[in-house]
Specification:
There is one protein chain. By secondary structure, the protein is α+β, with helices and mostly antiparallel strands. The chain has helices spanning 2-29, 37-57, 61-75, 83-112, 116-120, 124-148, 157-183, 187-267, 271-288, 297-312, 331-350, 405-414, and strands at 31-32, 79-80, 316-322, 358-366, 369-377, 385-387, 390-392, 418-424, 427-434. Helix 1 (2-29) runs parallel beside helix 6 (124-148). It contains twelve helices and nine strands. Helices cover 68% and strands 11% of the residues. It has a five-stranded mixed β-sheet with strand order 3-4-5-9-8.
């Protein structure tokens, strides 16, 4: 009787565990609606309890599966997404859950040297299978969700190893507990073994929660780094504005003297000299004018900062910028993509000798899509090799290109965009498209 109650308790516990996995998956792939957390938690728990009841009663595997799919689809209404996307990702989630159960069944059959009917019979092996399959499913779903997220976050391999090791160790420990439970007929020991099994499940809950916390900390560090970079761009831009304003004030202060000089040249019948003098004033005014003024503050700060840096390195910049004041792009992401692209271009050009240093920038916003091409001159004798899909240079010039390319690629992918590189005719070209921004 006690064993039956315990089996039912584990059925309920693992059934409640499944909505927890569904919630993790949906949170990563869908946008949460603004609904009561209590209502959402209640619905997820009721779904788990209903699944457990159907499993315990034993109505049938087909009915149980249909109920589970229907329940998961109803839970998806707590999230914003198209009907097509919901169906697609629910099918993906179901494939993960089925794969974890099939894999667990295969391992049990391999270890016990039995067929599937024997492995699925009520008993210790079925109980281990229930627990192990949910742990494996949680690991698969969590791994997929982490890989899908803003990939600017680099999680150390040690944490991945720990994430994988905990469920494996838990499965082995639960199997060991059951093995001893079969050989020792002591009610006190049986009670302790049951408590230990529940404890192992709770440990896995805690480990995955802590992994979420660690991941969020790494994400915060990455955001802070790029926010600091953005602030530096703004400070450089403000310094440039201050210098420009100072020059403008000086020009305004001297304007009376300039006009007197021009009048004197005209009165002295020296129109050519007067024209040259006026041209020099226009040149001075042009020097005070901001390079980029699109109305998009982040773009203006970043591009003006990089153009000024290029000018300090005697690099000519040919630019064609057509962007609206507002776009649906995170400022941090602009810094990641454009900042790294222009840094690489400037660094490459600054190393050139006896070759024209030039950077060509073309950015255009068409039908809610952002198109960008950045070309920089380079030594035609330099060969850029590829490591994976990213360009790397020779050992002597490793820093010339490749810095931040992976971050750029991941950030572009965040907007379902395309990033491309090309080396041709003495130019390195980086181009990207961001959709629906």
């Amino acid at each position: 009787m006690n064993n039956v109650l315990f089996m039912n308790a584990i059925e309920v516990l693992t059934s409640i565990f499944e909505p927890f996995i569904v919630n993790i998956f949906f949170n990563s792939f869908f946008v949460k609606k603004n609904v009561s957390k209590v209502l959402k938690l209640t619905c997820f728990l009721l779904f788990g309890m209903l699944s457990a009841a159907v499993s315990i009663v034993g109505i049938g595997a087909l009915f149980n599966s249909a109920l589970f799919v229907g329940g998961v689809f109803l839970l998806s209404f707590f999230y914003e997404s198209s009907f097509k996307n919901k169906i697609f990702y629910i099918v993906i989630l179901m494939s993960f859950l089925i794969a974890s159960e099939v894999f667990t069944l295969f391992i049990i059959m391999l270890l016990t040297n039995t067929g599937p009917e024997t492995a699925l019979e009520p008993g210790a092996m079925r109980l281990i299978g229930l627990i192990a399959s949910k742990m494996i499913a949680l690991f698969i779903v969590k791994t997929v969700c982490v890989l899908k997220q803003n990939s600017q976050v680099k999680i150390p391999y040690l944490y991945w190893f720990m994430l994988l090791a905990i469920p494996i160790i838990s499965i082995v420990t639960i199997h060991t507990i059951f093995t001893f439970n079969v050989t020792i007929s002591d009610s006190n020991y049986n009670l302790l073994s049951y408590i230990s099994i529940v404890g192992m499940l709770l440990i896995n809950f805690v480990v995955f929660y802590l992994f979420d916390v660690i991941q969020e900390k790494f994400l915060e560090q990455t955001r802070y780094k790029f926010l600091e970079q953005q602030i530096n761009y703004q400070l450089e831009h403000y310094k440039s504005l201050e210098l420009s304003q100072t020059k403008t004030n000086k020009l305004r202060h001297d304007m009376k003297n300039h006009l007197l000089c021009i009048k004197g040249l005209i009165d002295g019948n020296n129109p050519d000299e007067a024209t040259k003098y006026i041209k020099s004033i226009f040149d001075l005014m042009a020097d005070n004018k901001n390079e980029i003024n699109t109305g998009n503050h982040v773009f203006d700060c970043l591009l003006n900062s990089k153009i000024a840096l290029a000018a300090n390195n005697n690099i000519n910049v040919d630019k064609d910028i057509k962007v609206p004041p507002k776009m649906n792009i995170e400022p941090v992401d602009i810094c990641v993509i454009l900042g790294n692209a222009l840094d690489n271009a400037i660094e490459c050009c600054s190393k050139l000798v006896d070759i024209e240093k030039i950077i060509k920038i073309k950015i255009e916003y068409i039908n809610s899509n952002l198109f960008c091409i950045i070309k920089n001159s380079m030594n035609m004798n330099d060969k850029l090799n590829k490591k994976g899909k990213y360009y790397i240079t020779s050992k002597q010039e490793k820093s010339m290109h490749g810095f931040g390319l992976e971050n750029m690629d991941n950030t572009v992918a965040k907007y379902n965009g395309i990033l491309d590189f090309e080396q041709k005719d003495g130019f390195f070209t980086l181009s990207f498209v961001l959709y629906d921004v």
